[in-house]
Amino acid sequence: MAGEKILLEDVRKSFAGRAVLDGVNLAIEPGESLAIIGQSGSGKSVTLKCILGLIRPDAGRILVDGEDVTAMRPAQLEKLRTKFGMLFQGSALFDSLPVWRNVTFGITQGRMREPARMRMIAEENLERVGLDGRILNLRPSELSGGMQKRVALARAIAPRPEIIFFDEPTTGLDPIRADVINDLIVSLVDDLGVTALTITHDMASARKIAHRVAMLYQGRIIWRGPRDRLYDSGNPYVDQFVLGRAEGPIK
Amino acid sequence: MMSGSVPRAVIAAFAAIGGLIVAMLAEIGRVTRFAALTIGRALTPPYYPGRLLEQLGHIGWLSLPVVGLTAIFTGAALAQQIFTAGSRFSAQSTVPAVVVIGMVRELGPVLVGLMVAGRVSSAMAAEIGTMRVTEQLDAMTTLRTDPFRYLLSPRLFAGVIALPLLVLVANAIGIFGGYLLAVHKLGFNASNYLAVTRRVLRADDFQMALVKAAVFGFFMALMGCYHGYRTAGGAAGVGRSTTNAVVSAFVLIILSNLLITIAAFG
Predict the structure, then answer these.
(1) Which of A233, B11, B27, B147 has the most CB within a 10 Å radius?
(2) ipTM value for the complex
């Protein structure tokens, strides 16, 4: 199974006796963009946090470039995280810092160093996501939801990661702004040549962003396939979910 | 045989008490581990001296007005109380001595500890708790920045450094408050009052005040950081953390004040 950028083998995680991940198996190839779809509470965010080492799984292995994340010590995890960028669902920008320090936080690790160069790097990355230097000194609270998402996107790509995670990238945005974010993600993934993993329950987003889609249900991957097969999966669970029907096998 | 004759209610009561003790010990263990992590991480790079200075400003400089006001009014009220109570057995002359000892050994450190805990522990818990529920702490970790080094250690060390400095200021202002009231209202001679104050005051009184202040600063910051870091459950969770931080900081300050006083004089 060599060659996968990320490989999950029988990953399990329970909280207070409730199994959230119940044997997840998943492989993501280098340069691939994969979307995981599933209901709220199905374990999508937990999967991402397990890969990042923010949550330690109870069992199973998670390999990133062949290295087992679950066996790593904190210092090794910190080093591994240079490979990752992440766009959080609520943007998770640091309220107390201006935009330019937010964007360059992954480079400076929060320290105030080379401010002129950092402002330039911030401006370059903001331009990549369609924003300009006029917002460099603003605080996140002074930006709209869509602009906050873009700034968070700029922050995720600024350290030039090899892998980017997108956690519900279009949640809370109107359909037009959501599509703008989808386009941005597609162009960034193509331009930067990164491996991308998106979790979403926005079908339009999944179809636009991903090469392949996997569905997580009751802690397991129950279907995976190319995005073109999403509405023609032959799986009743996937059909019910993507068509948004109240009736079906998912209760 | 015994268990058969012991009423279920008694067993249930013992079980409840046992459960509480186990929960308390577990909490003490978690707090101790958290404190060790916060101190330990500060000893290895990267260091954040700028964050330490920033927190010294928040905890020390910005607390000066409330600490100063509390100290001057308390010093003056203490002088009036000692004068009134002392007049019952012709001991009015003890006012300068009691004010200075009372302020430096007890009231200065405890009042500063409580005032700053009310102002700062709650703010720390609310800020860090909000960062937790909005995933800012997770974002920080994914950006290869350890929240312990960046957020928590500077707050803990700033608390330990700032509180003794604030207590020195509060003691001076409190003694001055007593002096003002004694001289301008109670008719004490100004130079005699100051002479008695200087004669009574000893270096070990200040040492005790500074030790107490450093301990109070540690607990005040630790409780703010600990409860903020462990926040869960959205806005309601932030509210709970803030309350828990202030209440636990108050209890630890009062308890440690008693233990230090007994250790020194008991």
Answers:
(1) B147
(2) 0.89
Q: Do A111 and B50 touch (CB under 8 A)?
A: yes
The DSSP-derived string for chain B is -HHHHS-HHHHHHHHHHHHHHHHHHHHHHHHHHHHHHHHHHHTSSSP-HHHHHHHHHHHTGGGHHHHHHHHHHHHHHHHHHHHHHHGGGT-GGGHHHHHHHIIIIIIHHHHHHHHHIIIIIHHHHHHHHHHHHTTHHHHHHHTT--HIIIIIHHHHHHHHHHHHHHHHHHHHHHHHHHHHHHHHTS---HHHHHHHHHHH--HHHHHHHHHHHHHHHHHHHHHHHHHHHT--SHHHHHHHHHHHHHHHHHHHHHHHHHHHHHHHH-
Which of these, B48, B5, B33, B256, lies nearest to B146 by C-alpha position?
B48
Q: In whole angstroms, how far apart are CA A43 and each of A20, A219, B178?
A: 5, 6, 63
Q: How far apart are CA A206 and CA A204, in angstroms?
A: 6
pLDDT tens-digit map of B7-58: 888 999 999 999 999 999 999 999 999 999 999 999 988 899 999 999 999 9
Residues of B whose CB is below 8 A from A16: none
Collect all residues with Cβ–Cβ distance below 8 Å to A16 and sequence separation of at least 6: none
Q: Do B139 and A92 touch (CB under 8 A)?
A: yes
Among chain B residues, CA nearest to A155: B143
When pLDDT is cut at 50, 70 and 90, the band that residue B87 belongs to is confident
Q: Which residues between 93 and 112 in chain A have a beta carbon less than 8 angstroms from any beta carbon of chain B?
A: 93-95, 105-106, 109-112
Please, what are the domains in chain A?
6-243 (3.40.50.300)
Judge: B142–A54 Cβ closer than 8 Å, yes or no.
Answer: yes
- Among A residues 126-155, those touching chain B with beta carbons less than 8 Å apart: 155
CB contact under 8 A, A155 and B46: no
- Nearest CB among A54, A93, A112 relative to B138 is that of A54
Of the partner residues B136, B144, B146, the one whose CB lies closest to the CB of residue A106: B144
Q: How confident is the model at residue B4 (pLDDT cuts 50, 70, 90)?
A: low
Q: How far apart are the first and last CA of chain A?
A: 35
Tens digits of per-residue pLDDT, B101-122? 999 999 999 999 999 999 999 9
Min Cα distance A89 → chain B (Å) is: 9
Q: Is B143 on the interface with A (CB under 8 A)?
A: yes
- Rounded Cα distance between A203 and A242, Å, is 6
According to the model, what pLDDT value does residue A1 have? Answer: 46
pTM of the model: 0.88
- Predicted confidence (pLDDT) per residue in B245-260, tens digit: 999 999 999 999 999 9
Q: Map out the domains of chain B as residue ranges.
A: 51-265
